[in-house]
């Protein structure tokens, strides 16, 4: 990916004059590149494991680190495929026209926020990968038309995306609703699955989800920088690396199309994959019941993207462009897998979870599960991997205390929404696609962290 040469990249902020400006100022000077940050977190976790973990000896630490680093690769590929297939959908001409039509309605910063928050939140609720892509691309389209601070706009998109773990692609909710799923810890302990009606569609989940979107829209409108501090988007240096994807060998010397180019441009290959994919889904859902897990989500996104892009070569080119945005994820996933391995193998994660569980009551366990999840998520920013670490401790506690199992499980997921606003792992794709430095964005999302922290905690405690 080309180096960011936009004014945002070179911007040197003045001394802060308010809380939000102060946060942006601090993040720009303190926060390193996310990959460097993941290395720093590895060091911190390793030291803590050696000092206080139950099995915190060097051989166990090294073995756990290695196991975690390479054990996460299959899951990492699934996550990258969700992002790539979501990108291919969002880049389809008909979707691009829709984004441009939407962006045309944003004529002021306030209108931009009023547009971005609901659109991105709905996309993220449907699928976290789609939400990331739509948020980044819609932000770029709006910023081309409206004089807004680009970091503020991207941060708003990321804040709207934060509700994704309360939506249809929540790996914790989906896994507990899927019979035989490896991460369905509830079924393993009780023999029952937890339907989505008791998790993402329950009032204690969807009410705070809607509230976060509404409240943060209003707050972001107030947070937009003064006109003299606005750093607008620039297309400078942003030309695509493959502005022309045409194959120089697509035609013979006499100007006729080659067999290879005709095959690439034929819809037959697309139709074949559509028939296979749709046929499988129809058979599976007829024989069992409608079910969404990570793999079926990827398949559905693949099929939709193929249908929208129409030809195999168009889809392949879209995936190639998407691949440029996943490079940082390829670096970070193994590092965070190593962190997760250390925390699980040495017993450090269990110490954190048990510390909260031991002081819990049936009424307070979901909230303590939520608070412990906030800490663990900062170190293991993957809902599926995080659940594998924390679930084995909070679920037995919920069962033994006769606390609400769905509420306890979703407390873990809702904390993911909150912690992601300080943990840059998931911000990397959206800032890469948008073409902006992550530090300024995280200064704004720190506000989202503080507000959503209170909203979700109150919902777990009060909404029934």
Automatic annotation (TrEMBL):
Keyword flag Membrane: yes
Entry keyword annotation includes Transmembrane helix: yes
Domain of life assignment: Bacteria
Transmembrane segments: 35-53, 65-90, 110-138, 200-221, 266-283, 298-318, 330-353, 359-380, 443-463
Coiled-coil annotated residue ranges, if any: none
Keywords recorded for this protein, A-Z: Membrane, Transmembrane, Transmembrane helix
InterPro entries linked to this entry: SCFA_transpt_AtoE
Pfam family of the protein (one): SCFA_trans
Name of the featured protein: Short-chain fatty acid transporter
Taxonomic placement: Bacteria, Pseudomonadati, Pseudomonadota, Betaproteobacteria, Burkholderiales
Recorded name of the encoding gene: atoE_2
